[in-house]
From TrEMBL:
It comes from Larkinella bovis. The keyword Transmembrane helix applies. This is Diadenylate cyclase. InterPro entries: C-di-AMP_synthase, CdaA, CdaA_N, DisA, DNA_integrity_DisA_N_sf, DNA_integrity_scan_DisA_N. Belongs to the adenylate cyclase family. DacA/CdaA subfamily. Residues 80-247 form the DAC domain. It catalyses: 2 ATP = 3',3'-c-di-AMP + 2 diphosphate.
Length: 275
């Protein structure tokens, strides 16, 4: 089929549809962030480049071509967090990452151990909520959180309710920042977390909750935020915030989120014990 100066075949139609689907998924990924505006601006420049090339505007095509070639590298730098999230989503949607062979040889045992107790964490959050004590607790899953752990004070202690409460106490020098739990241990306190830049977050959301969302955006860790003003418990997972949930709901959501990796760890521990 030929339309004017364009020769269109069914393969071209399929190519356009697949590209449109890919662009929609990318836009959905960056929607609500500052990066979305940069993405739309770059997309408009690229469309202008395609039109100029098709019409035969050589000078404009050359100028826009240089801009796009340099802009591609800039986009990789600007969208590094979004690209990481995109690849993480793809990895989560495949069964390869959860296969027995992949788990045994490639996955590092650096998170969400089956022995990681949720009960002392839930009990501590319940006490913090009832006493209007603010706090931020991060529980690792698969991703390595060492770069965030290094920003705080290293502890390497057993997970216990009284220890968590003493860390977030108003008289404690460790109360500012986040507590990071990994491999059945409280790895560090007073850790610095990335702040989410999502434009869709309510302006009334405090920095503690923005930090919880931020760490859940750049890693697969779960973050619990307790408000000092209202005592409400919130849970951030995969960039989504579940505000004002009860301790029972917190335990249920955390259990479901960590159940997959816990099953893998139990299977591997049982296999190692039988050797």
């Amino acid at each position: 089929m030929k339309i004017g100066f364009l020769d269109i075949e069914w393969v071209d139609v399929l190519d356009v549809l697949l590209l449109a689907f890919l662009l929609y998924q990318i836009y959905f990924l960056v929607k609500g962030t500052i990066a979305s505006r940069i993405f739309l601006g770059y997309l408009l420049v690229y469309l202008l480049y395609l039109v100029a090339k098709a019409v035969g505007l050589e000078l404009l095509t050359t100028i826009l071509g240089y801009f796009i070639s340099v802009g591609a590298l800039a986009l990789i730098i600007i969208f590094q967090q979004e690209i990481r999230r995109f690849l993480l989503i793809i990895g989560k949607s495949t069964n390869i990452a959860n296969s027995r062979l992949f788990t045994r040889w490639f996955r590092q045992p650096t998170s969400a151990d089956p022995l990681t107790p949720l009960k002392p964490i839930i009990d501590a959050c319940k006490s913090m909520s009832s006493e209007f004590t603010g706090g931020l607790i991060v529980i690792a899953k698969n991703d390595d959180l060492d770069k965030f752990i290094q920003t705080g004070d290293l502890l390497d202690a057993i997970v216990a309710k009284r220890l968590l409460l003493s860390i977030v106490s108003q008289y404690s020098p460790l109360r500012d920042g986040a507590v990071i739990i990994s491999e059945d241990r409280i790895r560090a306190a007073r850790c610095i977390l990335p702040i989410s830049e999502n434009d869709e977050i309510l302006t009334s959301t405090g920095f503690r909750h923005r930090a919880a969302i931020g760490i859940s955006e750049v890693t697969d860790a779960a973050a619990i935020a307790i408000s000092e003003e209202t005592g409400r418990i919130s849970l951030a997972i995969d960039g989504d915030l579940y505000p004002n949930i009860s301790s029972a709901e917190l335990e249920e959501k955390l259990g479901q989120y960590l159940a997959e990796i816990n099953r893998i760890r139990k299977r591997e521990n049982g296999k190692d014990a039988s050797l």
